[in-house]
Amino acid sequence: QVQLVESGGGLVQPGGSLRLSCTASGSIFGLSTMGWYRQVPGKQRELVASLTRGGSTNYEDSVKGRFTISRENAQNTMYLQMNNLKPEDTAVYYCYGRNGETALTSWGQGTQVTVSS
Prior knowledge:
mainly beta, four-stranded antiparallel β-sheet
């Protein structure tokens, strides 16, 4: 089972951009679906975006048109480009990857994104 590590979080002003990275300890080719969740204290974790190995994407309504998910198999990395950030995007962002054969899901440790002036 691959280990996932997020990076790229931080503090940004409203309207700004961040790119989150999720790097795997091994090949991500076997991960049929990868994606990002986010969680705010006291609330349930919500799916932000997902991407299948075949290229199909799914976005939470509030981020459509602002966030873009992508993956680079050769780099064993998945990205979340976040533009026009809003204060309500503030959360801890977690990446995940689901193995297509075993259905096992790997999770990263989370990275904090804070959108504030």
